[in-house]
Amino acid sequence: MRLSSNVKPYVLLLIVGTFLLLGYVYFNFFSERLNRDILIDEDQKSTSLSRLVFRSRIRNMVSPEKLLYKQPSVLVGRTDVVSVTPWLAPIIWEGTFDPVLVDNIYKPMNLTIATTVFAIGKYVRFLQDFLDTAEKHFMVGFNMRYYVFTDRPHDVPSVNLSQGRHLSVIQVPGSNRWQEISAQRMEIIQTTIERQIRGEADYIFCLDVDSKFHAHWGSESLGRLVAVIHPGYYEQTRDRFPYERRPASTAYIPMDEGDYYYGGAMIGGFVEDVYTLAKVCRTQFEEDAGNSIEAAWQEESHLNRYLLYNKPSKVLSPEYLWQDFKAKTKEVKVIRFSGVIKNYAEVRSNV
Ligand SMILES: CC(=O)N[C@H]1[C@@H](OP(=O)(O)OP(=O)(O)OC[C@H]2O[C@@H](n3ccc(=O)[nH]c3=O)[C@H](O)[C@@H]2O)O[C@H](CO)[C@H](O)[C@@H]1O
Ligand SMILES: [Mn+2]
């Protein structure tokens, strides 16, 4: 069929118009998806992340719920503390996040959080308070799997767990040296991730048992690799940090290096990232042992060395690791987790 020369321009216009319309729809669809990904696109590195991003895309496409919250300000916020590291990882302080908003991002992902805790020898006595207070404050509303490592499985208290929360007791050998118990945590965390946790959880926290939760500790703490600033040293210069200072140790940090002094009582992050950390710290600890060296603060020293060269993607302020004997300071508005006062000579098998 031949078109008359009068009709030709209209057909051409129609074709161009259709392409423009398709282009517009296509562009809008993709820019919308990109905007939504930014919500949690914190760390592109991890393999688990693509799974999380995928889940969040699905959620956002299926049910875009409306959430009302206070408008974030570009100009007004906390000025008494630093809330970002020089490598642009957030430092989490009260007043720098909206817990409802953060939960709204993470809760629909149906995440499972693993928590490892060691209670060897007399330290089983700390379990009851640790678990009771965790149920009140720690990752409330999330699926939780506690892994309790102990040499006294019969002394593990029975605790009422909320729905979606489970506890497994795993028997491990005791030891006569507290330094060894503290340090062997890395090895046991590594092997339990290999055997079990990898298939059961998205994120993991490894915590000291001689502690209690006192206030909200939630999804604002989730990230690829999460460390906590030790409450005893955050006002000190780096040369005063109790890093391992002997060059013969694999945990060695020279006086002119170091970011923060991180506490050994908490490490967290994606299961795979914590796995690598535990594996490296364990290997280096063993290498030292082969050379008859034990780092100044055992696995805490190796942890600090690891984090100096593998920067955490999120840093928790000392609100997340306080010590009961320490008076609250003005910048700490909330104490969320704190080590109890203990009689070292009485609870430890050696001093
Ligand atoms: C607040 C903080 O950052 N604490 C760290 C600090 O001293 P801490 O005095 O907090 O060490 P600690 O005695 O609590 O030992 C660490 C953990 O090992 C376990 N445990 C220890 C001894 C024992 O007989 N049975 C037992 O189960 C238990 O889970 C305990 O919480 O230095 C240690 C170095 O080794 C660890 O890095 C701790 O995490
Ligand atoms: Mn402790």
Automatic annotation (TrEMBL):
Domain of life: Eukaryota
Entry cofactors: Mn(2+)
InterPro entries from the UniProt entry: Glyco_trans_6, Nucleotide-diphossugar_trans
Residues the record lists as binding Mn(2+): 208, 210
Protein residues bound to an alpha-L-fucosyl-(1->2)-beta-D-galactosyl derivative: 230, 300
UniProt cofactor note: Binds 1 Mn(2+) ion per subunit.
GO MF term list: hexosyltransferase activity; metal ion binding
Presence of the UniProt keyword Zinc in the record: no
Alphabetized UniProt keyword annotations: Glycosyltransferase, Manganese, Membrane, Metal-binding, Signal-anchor, Transferase, Transmembrane, Transmembrane helix
Any one GO biological process: carbohydrate metabolic process
Binding site for UDP-N-acetyl-alpha-D-galactosamine: 118-120, 123, 208-210
GO-annotated cellular components: Golgi apparatus; membrane; vesicle
Topology with respect to the bilayer: Single-pass type II membrane protein
Protein name: Globoside alpha-1,3-N-acetylgalactosaminyltransferase 1
Annotated organism of origin: Oncorhynchus mykiss (Rainbow trout)
Gene: LOC110538061
